[in-house]
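[Meeting: bench + compute handoff]

Bench side (C.D.) handed over the final construct sequence. Compute side (W.E.) agreed to return the predicted structure before the next meeting so the bench team could plan truncations. Sequence as handed over:
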Amino acid sequence: MVAPENLTDLEKARAQDPVFALHVGGKMEIASRVALAGPDELSMAYTPGVARVCEAIAADPALSDDFTWVPNTVAVVTDGTAVLGLGDIGPRAAKPVMECKAVLFKQFGGVDAIPICLDTVDVDEIVETVVRLAPSFGGINLEDISAPRCFEIEDRLKQALDIPVFHDDQHGTAVVVLAALENALRLTGRLMETAKVVVSGAGAAGVAVTRILLAAGLKDVSVLDRSGVLHSARGPLNDSKRALAEITADVTGRTGALVDVMVGADVFIGLSGGTIPEEIVATMAPDAIIFGLANPMPEVHPEVAHRYARVVATGRSDFPNQINNVLAFPGIFRGAFDVRARAITEGMKLAAADALALIVAEEIREDYIIPSPFDPRVGPAVAAAVSEAARRDGVARR
């Protein structure tokens, strides 16, 4: 222990910071589910009794789902290249976030989770590593991996594994955005099929949000990156952006910059960062919906957004209507694990979003379009909807 008088100013500041105090020693631990009070319990849990279970699993590998923790355990995997609002900070600096994801899995879904931070950014190496680790887990939650690499990694793992693979930055965000938007549209008297929507950001979250909104019935959406609206005639576009352009601007014919597509827009969804000038926000339709989801600074600050929008949401906990992934991923994995699903389908994601929206559908108001993560109805409702959808989609094993 270093004497207080020998601490640097930075060390003194950290010692007085309750955030650092909370993180001392990490935020999770392994706990035993069995009592080892004496030699009898030890002989059954370990040698010689454990050998009988090992031999049974060797003869029938499927028994691993009954006699190990595998079917209730998810690997939270990152390479640290796209962490929260911090960017590429590497695997060691990403570990506190991954530990918290594991704690959230347990707290809100009763799912055990192990954070795994990989010291490589090579797609082949990440895929190979996760495939080799997969027998120890019932599911894989990819986290904070930069686009466009995250798309290939997820796709290849889905093809290689027969357990759920879920990239939370994409699909967790998409599920919660859809749930919140369903209620916001209902509150403002709009329909998904006729709403004009602008999505700012074509990274992992922007791609997934746009795809789930289209799957839910949206027809008119413009997706923008730093160079403007994505459309096939504009180049260069990577594979994910080109595919997105083909199902958005190539259908609607919309092109140009943000200033062009925001005129008369019913909905703005920010997933990119930066600041949208107020004069552009002012051109939106009356009773607009603004989701400024960048952290820590929303693309449109709520104070500005409320001047022109009826419903405003952010990614922050200090404003109403927080779009928080924790509303989705614990319940989604809980539901998938409950029926031992082989995958997480689009139908399961849509079911999760509908379940979330319905929790507060009879109570919605401008500052309450999505439930709190601490609402005890959230986890069970999402899990039940996901389990039912898994059976309906033919991926449930029980």
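W.E. noted at the follow-up: Residues 33-68 form one domain. C.D. will use this when planning the next construct.
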